[in-house]
RNA sequence: GCCGCCUUAGCUCAGUCGGCAGAGCGAUUCACUCGUAAUGAAUAGGUCUGGGGUUCGAUUCCCCAAGGCGGCUCCA
């Protein structure tokens, strides 16, 4: 007699036969690839117990996608070891939009190798191999995997420390019970197997042809620079071929928006080799963009009560000892210049100099909050391998401010700063944010990096956390991500195609005021130490410009466009008429250009389109006769015969309101 | 900094199994003056990233350096 058990399936109580598997429950829906049993993801082959709560997980659910990609990583590893039996396995977790697998091989993978691997993977997938879970003891696993030194190392780390051992290592040995997943062919023979926590999709068939091997690179074993480098192969996998194609299209769109490419096309900036790596120069059009950004940000700061200051690019080293930066960041600062018996450093941060301004005379509590702000040029010796366009440079301009406040004023000031930075970002067209709270972490490798007492850190962190919570935005913890002198909130902004960028930062610092001996005289006549709050709104002007170029794909809103209005005469005869129209606009501060080349009209239209100028004004006989112009917009739409005064008013209004057209 | 790949005209890229280098776009000039994404023709433009080596001969092969790209590590 077969006993029955009661399970809860997607919230409904059901009585089923003993030994029923999750697969039995969801057999009629092929999109269900894994199950969540009592909150844990399980293979569909998992045998249910009385009282289990079972939820179906679809292939296109976030969890389902992770499982799909992790299974695809196994197929990749099987393919690699089929082609090269000497390859040793590292780890192979799912990542955003795909997966990777690390291998120890004597020669790195070539692009041809990757194509070959893709073919081998397709054959494995077509075989319809099933993923079969098998529990093993630690001892048996060590024997079976004696040829896989990295796996053996992970077995030694299994349990609580595995997640810390390496990002992604948890997918191999995350649980208390070690398991091996065997890939079994239809004839029952074992094709391959891998130490793995699982779960997996039931069969490789589900991968179809919706996967791709994308690239390879080196990666340090367990993410540590001190360890051996392995060769990492990246891939992507999706529920359907259409999903894969859409993903590849997204990548292509990101490539089209690449600010390095658009910077050349739009003649905004360049990176001359002669200057050195990571040192951009801004061409006239990029210069306009940069100046518009700075002018606007400077004005908004002043409106919000900041005082604009200026400080030099270099300083004697003592200053950076006082601040505490030099011991921590000496290797990321440019080496010093010796002059008149002193060592001078290019500054990598502005706060020490602002502290000197604060300290230049006695301060009263009546002056607080005292908010100092500048576009400070800083230089950081970024490692050669990390330099990237405008987003990671060695010379940059920070829109940096320091608010000096009483401890009681700190929460309100932080709130003020957060609202201020969010409003600034919105003005530039970014309006989708979340926050990150970077804190001290004494358990990890960064232990010892932080100065100040635990109580001070706890208090500062709590203040930031409270303000962040009050904002209503999502808050993501970032343990260990704080600077040495205090915790920080950072604002992450999503751009037009969904990528996130770290923008503004707000840091609570109780250390530097002490190190600099900053004080103010309180109402009772006593001397008190202020708290300083660091804040960068865009992080760096360069980086933010890069983000804006990609966010707008080079098609800036009129107020930021290097050229706002481009005149295109239908024929040479109408150039004079257009010139008059344009000079009228220029007199009102509009940035105008006239296409006086001897190109034919269609070519001028093409050039105008490629330049991404927001307003193209066209004039021919019809327009001139009517005292009008014709608009052509970036989307190709047009409005003909608009009276000149009306056109001018529309253009000026769009610029003034900072709207996109 | 580490690993891999790459560096040819202003830009995008061919090419040379080692024998004094090509295209398109762009630029300049001439003709054309045209109503919504490329008119035609001509001309100029390159110590083939730099330095060493091998060779009768190196842009091509080898070594080193610089710069770029993709990752890793890092990012006050």
TrEMBL record:
Keyword DNA-binding: no
Subcellular location: Cytoplasm
Residues reported in the UniProt entry to bind Zn(2+): 351, 402, 534
Catalysed conversion reaction: tRNA(Thr) + L-threonine + ATP = L-threonyl-tRNA(Thr) + AMP + diphosphate + H(+)
A molecular-function term among this protein's GO annotations: metal ion binding
Cofactor comment text: Binds 1 zinc ion per subunit.
SMART domains per record: tRNA_SAD
Domain Aminoacyl-transfer RNA synthetases class-II family profile residue range list: 289-557
InterPro entries named among the record's database cross-references: aa-tRNA-synt_IIb, aa-tRNA-synth_II, aa-tRNA-synth_II/BPL/LPL, Anticodon-bd, Anticodon-bd_dom_sf, TGS, Thr-tRNA-ligase_IIa, Thr/Ala-tRNA-synth_IIc_edit
Enzyme type, top EC level: ligase
Gene Ontology terms describing biological process: threonyl-tRNA aminoacylation
Xref: PROSITE patterns: AA_TRNA_LIGASE_II, TGS
Pfam families from the UniProt entry: HGTP_anticodon, tRNA-synt_2b, tRNA_SAD
Keyword Methyltransferase tagged: no
Gene3D superfamilies documented for this protein: 3.30.54.20, Anticodon-binding domain, Bira Bifunctional Protein, Domain 2, Threonyl-trna Synthetase, Chain A, domain 2
Keywords (A to Z) from UniProt: Aminoacyl-tRNA synthetase, ATP-binding, Cytoplasm, Ligase, Metal-binding, Nucleotide-binding, Protein biosynthesis, RNA-binding, tRNA-binding, Zinc
Entry similarity comment: Belongs to the class-II aminoacyl-tRNA synthetase family.
Subunit structure: Homodimer.
Protein name: Threonine--tRNA ligase
Organism: Candidatus Phosphoribacter hodrii
Lineage: Bacteria, Bacillati, Actinomycetota, Actinomycetes, Micrococcales
